[in-house]
């Protein structure tokens, strides 16, 4: 079986003991065969040998010997009785055959991830700090809130060491040292494992576990036990708003989570601020005491200081009575500035924040019943003091069929290279939904799983893997970066709580290959000054060797990083911490430049990072530049040309590096700038760039007012190495892509010309003003051709009539100088 928490393992052990009664051997029996096991180690060594763990020889356990990482892995895997036969291969290339299964199982259980993606460092000696992390994860030990008395425990080990001390697994090597970097001894490790296995945490009193603000209006209160929800007899159930006050004011709503252990609390007033008093009064739990009375949580209070820096997300889309409703994860304070339905811009007057401010409504009359429609939204912001902008949304809205009593698919949002979120019209009973994904003649079975983070129960998650080497890459054929599938739901795939069953439903979903490499978001010296941290915009896998990270001081002297202390943050795989001072010692005052080579990291889809160079100053004077540049964007005088100016913290223009000329640092409507885009500094001051889109790259926006689009600026650095905070800016674009002829069809004397987009024909337009028409190489004249007209029901097609049946098929081309025939945005066809 796969790895299970300790409580599960003890249940299985108890069941086995009940089924087969056998004499229990005294603990010292196993240890007695070794000559190097003193009394204080006997029970621990016997515990390990009972699990099949051998000594260093037939007569010695090696009690005082150091342990290699590979041997420690075997000890942990067997002590936990992990399923070593069915764990997938770890991918490590340096594990001897004798321990491959155990290392596979440890990685599968999440106890260790090795040194790199392909190396476990089997033969290296393991330190007490590394073992602390393994044991804490293996036995799910909880850290204490008490401050550690040890002075040799850096941040990456603090949680694990605290957990071991809290569980009385160890008390350190002295009163003030844990011995984090000391090599672990086999006898001490045996004791660690025995004590961890025997540890039983003291049951916690029902209480608040944590409080965290999640936006400008809401906090989430987590409890250590299940709560009673929406009770008709209790006055303090979890949904009672009087249970929660902020500076003496009751909440306006309280929503209990599905697992009944957390409550999302909404306040009318702003949650942002300093030194606010949050009080959680006693809340009824699902537990009763021996007399049958409901047990309440203890009263809780906290001083809350919070600044909202988290942007809302789109939860779902729906359509009714000609209106699209977009549901967000929190209240919206600024309506979207750019909305397009099926590629057509929506006027600002048709976009509004609803009375329920978590929703935005979009007037979009005329969408056909049962149709799937593309929806693009940008520019919405929340209600924070410094408003956070919602990420660009590229998704769909599905118009329900006339039978509204049945559950239906309301929307599909692509969330990643191989993932999507499906929103239903109502909650249903099942935790999974079976569906089929079709591309051409190939049909694959897929399963959608319920999104447990959505309290409405209406969203399900789709993850597609078509047997590619990396998750999701089997979707894309050859060099393709975009593939569209049909997503099919059989009749009765959805069943609501009253037994209504869905009709058969088919929609499309387009997956776009993730080709974006992990991008640096920020870099900083940690508060204890022992390390520098690089934060990226997505989870990382480490490919490179720490030996290739270059650190130089202000004198140009190279400093080697400490390999054992340079790693991904244990709780956040988006952060890589670089240490070039051994142990918990702070970095000496000075200026340091750190360069991480290209390809050192990769994301889930194998995209490799660019080289990163950052300068840090430790113990600096206050004049040192640590302020991130701020981008301001405006439309230049020429169409489809944008001016991007960079400012410092005082509002003055400042010079930026050549990163400002990197097209990869700009996106338009969430996509890379089109090939051929020109970017240049406007002066030698290097504080402003212009971005000029090439002809044929824009197909929205008329020639008068244009259409709104969103330019995203990221990863631009100033001379001091400070990277700008990613920001979105509304710009105006105008169509610069001419309609072109797709086909010419002759039916008798009628000639039909079809374009690749809608075209507009002015009244009484001479066909030969727009076209050159020849028959057998002879140009026709005005007497040979009628006026040009639109074709009813097909805005992409125009028609003219010949006065006589042609002797051969006419050849029709657009006159290069014509200006009368234009596309819907006023661009002359070509």
Proportion of helical residues: 10-25%
The dominant shape is: globular
Contiguous helical run count: 9
The assigned structural class equals mainly beta
Mean pLDDT figure? 87
CATH hierarchy: architecture of the largest domain: Sandwich
Summarize the main sheet. Answer: 7 strands, antiparallel
Q: How much of the residues is beta strand, in percent?
A: 25-35%
The quaternary organization reads as: single chain
Distance between the termini: 67 Å
Number of domains: 6
Going across the biggest sheet, name each strand in turn.
21-22-25-24-23-26-27
Please give the number of β-strands.
55
Work out the radius of gyration.
33 Å
Low-confidence stretches: 1-29
Specify the CATH class of the largest domain. Answer: Mainly Beta
CATH structural fold name of the largest domain: Immunoglobulin-like
Describe the structure.
By secondary structure, the protein is mostly beta strands. The chain folds into 6 domains: 6-198, no CATH class; 208-306, Immunoglobulin-like, CATH 2.60.40.1220; 315-512, Sandwich (Immunoglobulin-like); 520-618, Immunoglobulin-like (Sandwich), CATH 2.60.40.1220; 630-733, Immunoglobulin-like (Sandwich), CATH 2.60.40; 741-823, Immunoglobulin-like, CATH 2.60.40. The protein is 11% helix and 33% strand. The chain is built from 9 helices and 55 strands. The strands form 15 sheets. Strands 21-22-25-24-23-26-27 form a 7-stranded antiparallel sheet, with no helix packed on it. A hairpin with a 2-residue loop joins strand 50 and strand 51 (778-779). Helix 3 (39-49) packs across helix 8 (186-198). The longest helix has 14 residues, at 6-19. The chain is globular, with a radius of gyration of 33 Å. The termini are far apart. The relative contact order is 0.05. Residues 1-29 have low confidence and may be disordered.
């Amino acid at each position: 079986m796969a790895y299970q928490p300790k409580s599960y393992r003890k249940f299985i052990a108890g069941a086995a003991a009940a089924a087969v009664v056998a004499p229990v051997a005294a603990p010292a029996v196993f240890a007695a065969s070794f000559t190097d096991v003193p009394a204080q180690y006997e029970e621990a060594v016997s515990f390990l040998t009972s699990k099949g763990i051998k000594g260093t020889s037939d007569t010695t356990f090696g009690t005082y010997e150091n342990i290699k990482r590979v041997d420690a892995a075997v000890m942990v895997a067997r002590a936990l009785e992990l399923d070593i036969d069915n764990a997938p291969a770890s991918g490590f290339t340096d594990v001897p055959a004798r321990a491959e299964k155990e290392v596979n199982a440890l990685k599968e259980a999440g106890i260790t991830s090795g040194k790199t993606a392909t190396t476990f460092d089997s033969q290296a000696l393991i330190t007490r700090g590394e073992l602390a992390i393994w044991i804490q994860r293996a036995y799910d030990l909880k850290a204490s809130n008490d401050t550690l008395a040890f002075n040799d425990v850096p941040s990456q080990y603090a949680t694990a060491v605290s957990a071991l001390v809290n569980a009385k697994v160890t008390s350190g090597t002295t009163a003030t040292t844990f011995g984090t970097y000391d090599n672990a001894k086999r006898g001490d490790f045996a004791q660690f494992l025995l004590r961890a296995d025997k540890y039983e945490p003291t049951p916690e009193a029902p209480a608040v576990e944590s409080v965290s603000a999640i936006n400008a209006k809401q906090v989430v209160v987590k409890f250590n036990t299940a709560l009673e929800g929406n009770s008709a007899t209790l006055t303090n159930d979890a949904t009672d708003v009087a249970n929660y006050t902020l500076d003496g004011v009751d909440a306006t709503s309280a929503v209990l989570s599905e697992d009944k252990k957390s409550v999302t609390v909404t306040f009318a007033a702003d949650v942002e601020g300093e030194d606010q008093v949050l009080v959680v009064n006693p809340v009824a739990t699902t537990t009763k005491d021996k007399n049958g009375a409901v047990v309440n949580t203890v009263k809780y209070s906290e001083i809350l200081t919070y600044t909202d820096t988290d942007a809302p997300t789109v939860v779902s889309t729906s359509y009714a009575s000609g209106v699209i409703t977009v549901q967000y994860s929190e209240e919206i304070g600024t309506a979207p500035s750019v909305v397009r339905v099926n590629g057509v811009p929506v006027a600002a007057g048709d976009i509004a924040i609803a009375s329920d401010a978590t929703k935005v409504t979009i007037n979009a009359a005329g969408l056909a019943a049962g149709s799937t429609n593309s929806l693009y939204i940008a520019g919405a912001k929340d209600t924070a003091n410094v408003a956070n902008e919602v990420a660009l949304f590229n998704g769909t809205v599905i118009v329900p069929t006339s039978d509204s009593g049945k559950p239906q698919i309301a929307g599909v949002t692509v969330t990643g290279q191989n993932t999507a979120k499906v929103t239903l019209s109502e909650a249903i009973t099942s935790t999974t939904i079976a569906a089929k994904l079709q591309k051409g003649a190939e049909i694959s079975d897929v399963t959608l799983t319920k999104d447990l983070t959505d309290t409405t129960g209406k969203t399900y998650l789709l993850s597609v893997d078509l047997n590619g080497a990396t998750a999701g890459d089997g979707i894309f054929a050859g060099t393709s970066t975009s593939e569209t599938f049909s997503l099919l739901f059989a009749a009765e795939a959805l069943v609501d709580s009253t037994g209504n069953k869905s009709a058969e439903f088919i929609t499309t979903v387009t997956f776009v290959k993730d080709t974006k490499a992990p991008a640096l978001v920020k870099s900083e010296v940690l508060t204890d000054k022992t390390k520098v941290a690089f934060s990226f915009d997505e989870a990382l896998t480490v490919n490179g060797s720490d030996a290739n990270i270059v650190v130089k001081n202000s004198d140009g002297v190279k400093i080697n990083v400490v390999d054992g202390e340079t790693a991904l943050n244990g709780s956040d795989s988006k952060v890589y911490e670089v240490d070039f001072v051994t142990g918990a010692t702070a970095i000496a005052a000075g200026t340091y430049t750190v360069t991480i080579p290209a390809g050192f990291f990769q994301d889930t889809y194998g995209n490799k990072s660019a080289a990163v160079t950052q300068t840090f100053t430790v113990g600096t004077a206050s004049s040192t530049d640590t302020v991130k540049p701020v981008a301001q964007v405006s439309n230049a005088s020429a169409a489809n040309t944008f001016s991007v100016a960079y400012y410092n913290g005082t509002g003055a223009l400042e010079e930026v590096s050549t990163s400002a000329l990197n097209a990869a640092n700009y996106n338009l409507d969430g996509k890379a700038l089109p090939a051929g885009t020109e970017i240049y500094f406007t002066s030698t001051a290097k504080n402003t760039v212009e971005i000029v889109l090439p002809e044929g790259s824009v197909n929205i926006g008329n020639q008068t007012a244009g259409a709104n689009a969103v330019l995203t600026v990221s990863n631009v650095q100033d001379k001091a190495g400070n990277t700008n905070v990613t920001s979105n800016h509304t710009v105006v674009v105008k169509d610069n892509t001419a309609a072109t002829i797709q086909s010419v069809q002759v039916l008798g004397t009628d000639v039909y010309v079809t374009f690749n987009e809608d075209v507009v024909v002015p009244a009484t337009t001479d066909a030969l003003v727009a076209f050159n028409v020849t028959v057998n190489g002879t140009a026709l004249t005005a007497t040979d051709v009628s006026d040009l007209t639109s074709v009813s029901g097909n805005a992409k097609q125009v028609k003219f009539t010949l006065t006589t049946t042609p002797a051969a098929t006419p050849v029709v081309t657009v006159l290069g100088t014509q200006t009368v025939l234009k596309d819907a945005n006023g661009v002359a066809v070509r």
